[in-house]
Automatic annotation (TrEMBL):
Ranges of residues in domain NACHT: 168-305
InterPro entries in UniProt: NACHT_NTPase (IPR007111), P-loop_NTPase (IPR027417)
PROSITE patterns: NACHT
Coiled coil: none
PANTHER family reported in the protein's UniProt record: NACHT DOMAIN-CONTAINING PROTEIN, NUCLEOTIDE-BINDING OLIGOMERIZATION DOMAIN-CONTAINING PROTEIN 2-LIKE
Species, as recorded: Dreissena polymorpha (Zebra mussel)
Pfam families linked to this entry: NACHT (PF05729)
Domain of life of the native organism: Eukaryota
Record-given protein name: NACHT domain-containing protein
């Protein structure tokens, strides 16, 4: 052993030495090889590096050369492009490639022009040459938006510019001086500004700071319409006012072409300022034209309200806004004060407020123009106070003070407002001349010259004055007139205008007060020429009432005649309401100027007590005007709900001598209106009372001329309203109020409408009556219609016992209700239309030879032959009784509708009949003579002769009996509805049919050629030929027999219902179907693409391909076969019912499920999120995940598997049944449980809190806590 060890040891040492030698040898060899290879690689790398360096140098040189060459080339191309841009502007042809650059150039030029043109604004009309930066004095306006009769304040540009999808016109209305032009200017400046730059005054102006809404418009065009009265089109106005002011002669035409291109392609905002100051020369157009091709343009139009309300149709208004002044008038005043003194002075601001409060000038502050005038005059040490005439007299006096320091007073002037002026009398010659110009311009029949006029027209109005130039210079220097350079290149003469329209109106009123003869001449012609003339001079009339009441009285007579003419056909909401407001405004001004009310004789005929009267003072003035015009009054309108609670109002200090006398006529108190006696208004023709109005019985007792009366909407009478003296009544609409009418009405009335309660109404003396309409509360005297009557239209919805019409009456249209008993032989003459719902036995119409339309109610018994010879009869509706109706001579009859109590002769229908509806009885109806039939409807008691139908009808509804109906020869038939008593001959249906509803019998129906078919409903007695349904079908409801139905091409299908006797070819249902109810046979149904599916019901003979149901499904009721149903995406599911042949993939049911009844297979059902669940039934092949049932479950029937069911929170259970495979967690049942059947496992079941139990069954695996059952 030892020797062997030594031998091994020696061999190991030998092998070690041998390996060591071999390793050293190979190491040395490898080292030599590595050194040699390293040297070779190093040489190779150096060689390659030098080569690459040389190649890189050569490439750099080459690239540099090519770059230089290309740079020269691109330089030439850039130069050429620049020349092309220049060529676009100055060349002879338009190059579309340069549109973008030219558009940007135009935009920048416009912004530069706007920023220069509109950056400054005159501080006041008193100082037109002293202007300040607009942003320094600007205060956001108060703007309201009118939407559906309501108003809401808007303070964002996006709300202002929100346009209607079909109408791009936005109207901004506002009275003179409210800031319309200033707001339009601010819009333009905000568009020019960069929204990324902060506005230093943005914190002070939080309103309208969303400039990004303006930057959505590529261009904003602002034009002032008063400067272009002769231009018809908006495009020409933009060219005249903007393009011509930016570009020279050589560029204008090219830029005008670009302008048209821009407005076609880009979103633009076009602002038209001052629509009321623009009238095209022909006077027919209400606004400048903008071609409809510029549909990307939004148009904002500013105007005065009268222009909008009288010249613009409602359909033309896309959006309506109203500007009422500024939100913070004292901020505007402070801005002006700071601008004047160049520093903020709190003392000035507080002193100014005290000045306003002391002189009661607050109502002027909402008008920025008046506010700036008042501030500027106050800064100069001048104070304003008093009425409108006083204020404008002071303003005019202040303007004249700048021209002539000489002052003189009106010591003996009858005009109150001029007594405290200093500078008007020394310059009275100039004032009268300027007033003359103001008058003739304002009432020029060429409306475009009313506000802006030329120097030639100025001289024409002063043609008898030698010093025209001096007068013009005086007016311009005083600031009464302004002069502008014309923007037209054809007419270089300057245009003139008054500094503001209100100043012009005041001066025109002064001229009228001094020259009353113009009222009958120029003013009368102006009012006669223009329908809205009285609205255009409302402010002037107010001034005239304060200057000369006699002239105002005379002018009111002219306006009275004008308004009466306009209001003749509009008795309610008409021009006269606005006329009343004008007179009330003038009355206030007259009283404020210390004019005795006994000298005020303003004339009117229509009086309104409604929302237009905003105060007690206005109510008193309206009463004064009514009393003063008692002999003129024709119309009185009262809306009691509009009467304010006067105890909460403060009178404006006007006293009246006849207030106590007024109280004798009416009393308005706490929102109620009591009418006592209006007998002084003897000529009153119309009175209309609405709202909370209370009348005394004799309030209207002496109105002999009363024609129209309306008493509605909670109006009451303390007794019986006496109208016994009103023999001329024509229209009475007074609801259910008891009325004492005249014993007999008489007069020349032609129309009578009674909507009231009235007993024994006698119309025998109303010989001119042509139309009578009586409501259900009217009892008519049976002999009211006499031999002299001219009645053409008679409508009696009331009652009359034994109505007798004279033999030679002229009635064309007759409508009689069920409360009238008509004498059988009373109808004759030339009547054309009758509608009788009355009672009549044995009615005979044989003498009514001109009858064209007849409608008889169910209480009428008709003589069989009474209609036989009515040759002109076209439409017949009978719901009464007639045995054996004959229509032999009714050759022109087109429509007939017969009720169930009518027996029709078999050959009674013939001639030109188009529409037939027979619900009565007819045995063997023959329609072979009715060649023009379009629609047929026959009831159950009709037997139709087969083959008697014509071929032209379009609609067929038959519930009758017919053995062997053939409709193949009816090519125009579109709608078919056939009942159970009909047997249809097999064959194809007409190709144009749109809808069919067939419950008849047919052994071989073919619809393959019905390419227009939309709706199809087939009953169980029909056999449908196999084949493909037309592609346009939308609704299918088929209970018929069919052995191979194909609906694969029905792409428009929405509703599908198929009965059990149909075999549907396998395939994919159309994607648009919403409702499926299929009990048919189908071996491979695919609904995977039905993304709009909402309701799904499938019968047991259907095999559904596995897959996921669409997420919109709400109701599922499936008894079909399906080996892998997925409802995990059905988030809107509400009801789920699945049969035993379905395998449901494990899932969590959505929270909206209310009802579950599933007998399918499912290895993991989760209902923990079904918070709205009410009823649940689960079969034995379902495994329910352990957990709590939803709290609101009422009915539980579960035979499934569940290892830990928790119902501890379910206190609303009515019935519960659990199977053997369920383990119920220990629970205390609560609530109103009535039925319990528990075969599950449960320890410690507690039923002690249940007192409504009626039935209980517990299995052996349940441990019940001891209780006392109450069953």
């Amino acid at each position: 052993m030892k020797s062997q060890t030594d031998i091994c040891k020696e061999e190991i040492l030998y092998s070690r030495d041998l390996c060591k030698t071999e390793i050293v040898t190979r190491t040395v060899s490898c080292k030599h090889f590595l050194d040699s290879h390293t040297t070779t690689c190093q040489n190779e790398i150096e060689k390659k590096t030098n080569t690459c360096k040389n190649e890189l140098d050569d490439h750099i040189i080459k690239c540099k050369s090519e770059f230089d060459n290309n740079a020269a080339k691109y330089k030439e191309e850039l130069k050429e492009a620049s020349e092309n841009v220049l060529h676009f502007i100055t060349g002879d042809e338009y190059n579309p490639c340069n549109y973008e650059s030219a558009r940007e150039a135009l935009k920048q030029q416009m912004k530069r022009y706007y920023s220069t043109r509109f950056r400054h604004t005159p501080l006041s009309v008193l100082m037109p040459l002293i202007d300040k930066p607009l942003m320094d004095i600007y205060v956001p306006p108060k703007i309201q938006k009118h939407v559906d009769g309501k108003t809401k304040c808007v303070d964002k540009y996006k709300d202002i510019l929100m346009r209607d999808a079909q109408n791009n016109l936005i109207f901004l209305k506002g009275e003179a001086g409210t800031g319309k032009t200033t707001f339009a200017t601010k819009v333009v400046l905000d568009w020019c500004s960069d929204s990324s730059k902060s506005d230093p005054t943005s914190q002070l102006r939080e309103n309208f700071n969303d400039k990004e809404a303006l930057h959505e418009y590529e261009f904003v065009f602002l034009v002032t319409l008063r400067d272009s009265p002769s231009q018809l089109e908006v495009m020409h106005i933009i060219k005249e006012q903007i393009i011509d002011n930016i570009y020279g002669d050589l560029d204008r035409e090219k830029m005008y072409t670009l302008l048209q291109k821009v407005m076609l392609k880009e979103p633009c905002l076009v602002i038209q300022d001052g629509l009321d100051e623009w009238t095209y020369s022909d006077g027919k157009l209400s606004q400048p034209l903008l071609p409809t091709c510029y549909n990307l343009c939004t148009v904002l139009i500013t105007t005065r309200p009268w222009k909008l309300e009288n010249c613009i149709r409602d359909s033309c208004i896309g959006s309506l806004l109203e500007i009422t002044g500024v939100n913070k008038p004292y901020m505007l005043a402070n801005n002006i004060l700071v601008s004047c003194y160049n520093e903020h002075n709190k003392d000035f601001n507080s002193e100014f407020k005290k000045y306003i409060d002391k002189n009661q000038l607050e109502h002027f502050l909402k008008v920025p123009m008046m506010l700036t005038m008042i501030v500027c005059l106050w800064v100069d040490g001048l104070c304003l106070k008093g009425t409108a005439c006083q204020i404008y007299s002071s303003l005019l006096d202040s303007l004249l003070a700048k021209i002539n320091s000489e002052n003189e007073y009106f010591y003996d002037s009858p005009v109150f407002c001029l007594k405290n002026t200093h500078f008007i009398k020394p310059n009275i010659k100039f004032v009268k001349s300027i007033a003359k110009v103001a008058f003739y311009c304002l009432f020029s029949l060429e409306r475009e010259k009313s506000l802006v006029f030329s120097e030639m027209e100025f001289n024409q109005y002063l043609q008898h004055s030698a010093d025209k130039a001096e007068i013009k210079s005086f007016a311009l220097n005083a600031g009464v007139l302004s002069q502008r350079r014309s923007s037209s290149f054809t007419n270089r003469s300057p245009s003139l205008s008054f500094v503001h329209k209100s100043i012009q109106e005041f001066l025109a009123a002064y001229y009228i007060a001094d020259n009353m003869n113009v009222i009958d001449d120029e003013l009368s012609e102006f009012v006669r020429r223009f329908d809205n003339g009285h609205l255009q001079i409302c402010e002037l009339f107010r001034f005239l009432c304060g200057l000369n009441i006699d002239a105002a009285n005379k002018l009111s007579c002219v306006l009275y005649g004008h308004v009466a003419r306009l209001s003749s056909n509009q008795p309610h909401f008409c021009k006269s309401r606005s006329f009343q407001k004008i007179l009330i405004s003038g009355f206030k001004e007259a009283k404020a100027n210390r004019i005795d009310e006994n000298h005020i004789h303003l004339k009117l005929s229509h009086i309104y007590f409604d929302f237009s009267l905003s105060s007690k003072t206005e109510m008193e003035i309206a009463t004064f005007l009514m009393k003063a015009n008692a002999s003129n009054l024709r119309f009185w309108y009262i809306f009691g709900d509009a009467i304010p609670d006067y105890e909460m109002l403060v009178s404006e200090g006007i006293t009246y001598n006849n207030v106590q006398e007024n109280e004798r006529m009416y009393k308005a108190h706490e929102g109620k209106y009591e009418l006592f006696d209006i007998s002084p208004c003897t000529y009153l023709e119309s009175i209309h009372l609405f709202g909370q109005v209370t009348l005394l019985p004799l309030a209207l007792s002496n109105l002999h001329n009363l024609k129209h009366i309306t008493i509605q909407h909670r109006a009451t009478v303390n007794g019986k309203l006496d109208l016994s003296a009103s023999h001329s009544l024509e229209t009475v609409d007074i609801g259910n109020i008891d009325v004492l009418f005249p014993t007999t009405l008489r007069g020349n009335m032609t129309s009578l409408k009674f909507t009231c309660n009235c007993d024994n109404l006698d119309l025998s003396l109303c010989h001119n009556l042509e139309t009578i309409e009586l409501s259900s509360g009217v009892q008519l005297n049976s002999n009211s219609i006499n031999l002299q009557c001219k009645i053409k239209h008679l409508n009696i919805l009331g009652s009359c016992d034994g109505l007798n019409l004279p033999p030679d009456h002229n009635i064309d249209t007759l409508v009689i209700s069920k409360n009238v008993r008509l004498l059988p032989t009373t109808l004759r003459g030339n009547m054309e239309n009758i509608e009788l719902i009355c009672m009549c036995s044995g009615l005979d119409l044989s003498l009514c030879n001109n009858l064209q339309e007849i409608e008889l109610g169910p209480e009428i018994t008709l003589a069989p032959s009474s209609l036989a010879q009515l040759h002109n009869l076209k439409k017949l509706t009978l719901r009464g009784t007639c045995n054996g109706l004959e229509l032999n001579g009714c050759h022109n009859l087109e429509q007939i509708a017969i009720g169930k109590k009518i027996t029709l002769a078999p050959v009674a229908l013939r001639g030109r009949l188009k529409y037939v509806n027979v619900e009565g009885t007819c045995s063997g109806l023959d329609l072979t003579s009715c060649h023009d039939l379009e629609s047929i409807r026959l009831g159950d008691d009709v037997i139709l002769i087969p083959g008697s139908l014509s071929c032209r009808f379009k609609s067929l509804t038959l519930q009758c009996k017919c053995a062997g109906l053939d409709i193949k020869a009816c090519p125009d038939l579109k709608f078919i509805k056939l009942g159970f008593g009909i047997t249809l001959i097999p064959g194809p249906l007409p190709v144009r049919v749109l809808g069919i509803d067939l419950q008849c019998t047919c052994a071989g129906l073919d619809v393959s050629a019905c390419h227009c078919l939309v709706s199809i409903a087939l009953g169980k007695d029909i056999t449908l030929m196999p084949g493909r349904l037309p592609r346009g079908v939308r609704t299918i409801d088929m209970q018929c027999k069919c052995s191979g139905l194909d609906i694969s091409e029905c792409h428009n299908l929405k509703t599908l219902a198929l009965g059990k006797d149909i075999t549907l070819l396998p395939g994919r249902l159309p994607r648009g179907v919403r409702t499926i109810d299929m009990q048919c046979n189908c071996s491979g149904l695919d609904i995977s693409v039905c993304v709009h599916l909402e309701s799904l019901a499938l019968g047991k003979d259907i095999t559904l391909l596995p897959g996921r149901l669409p997420n919109g499904v709400r109701t599922i009721g499936m008894q079909c076969n399906c080996s892998g149903l997925d409802i995990s995406e059905c988030v809107h599911l509400e009801s789920l019912a699945l049969g035993k042949d379905i395998t449901l993939l494990p899932c969590r049911l959505p929270r909206g499920v209310r009802t579950i009844d599933t007998q399918c297979k499912c290895s993991g059902l989760d209902i923990s999120e079904c918070h709205y669940l009410k009823s649940i039934a689960l079969g034995k092949d379902i495994t329910l995940l352990p957990g709590r049932l939803p709290r609101g479950v009422r009915t539980i029937d579960m035979q499934c598997k569940c290892s830990g069911l928790d119902i501890s929170r379910n206190h609303s259970i009515d019935s519960i049944a659990l199977g053997h495979d369920i383990t119920l967690l220990p629970v205390v049942l609560r609530g109103r449980v009535k039925t319990i059947n528990l075969q599950c496992k449960c320890t410690r079941l507690n039923l002690s809190h249940i007192h409504t139990l009626k039935s209980i069954a517990l299995g052996k695996a349940i441990t019940l806590r001891p209780i006392r059952l109450l069953i």
